[in-house]
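Extended Data, panel c. Modelled sequence:
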Amino acid sequence: MFSQLRLICFDLDNTFWPIEPVIRAADQAVEQWLAAQYPTLAAVVSPDLLREARFDLARQHPDRAHDLTWLRIEALARCALAQGLPAAVGREGFEVFIAARHRVEFYPDVLPALDVLGQSFRLATLSNGNADIQRIGAAERFEFSLNAGLIGYAKPDPRAFQKVLDISGCQPAEVLYVGDDPDHDIAGPQKLGLRTAWMRRDPARDWPAGFTAPDVVLATLADLVSALPRVR
């Protein structure tokens, strides 16, 4: 199945680290910052309100819906303007958010597995999120790292995965994509013929009906090390 494999490309959030507690803490950091710096704005906005504002912006601007950074900045900027504050509050608040957003805790299996996999395969990342693998301190493990805001397309758009092929020079059968989302991370790359691995960290989670099964199901990245014949 993996005899032609040259490159392994990974999702980040909920594949390398749990994302829900990270985003919750980052939203709380923004909330606290607003209360200290712009109390009148803090009195009328909340993480839930800002989330809805981002959804509205994505619907109004589908050409920018892939850019989570722009959505966050613009949503807060518009709320600030509505309260007579400068639009620059959006950028200021985003800097608070993104600093906290990079305080991730890798699942314990990830870094040891990457060190082993990197001895036999080229490694890369492709994410819809705005995490910067260099800012997190793991960039040296990867040949390249892409995100939707950078390339202009969000998974499961096949063009996102085509970018991986274009940069790497690989053929589809030479690339394995690893991620936790059946639609974004499995159905998307399957459309181009990439190999796929579903990261199923929750053992109670079932594969959804209507989706073509991945090539392999993983509970941890250690399972991937065991599944690939050239890695021992």
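Strands lie at 7-10, 122-127, 144-147, 175-179, 195-199, 216-218. This feature is highlighted in the accompanying rendering.
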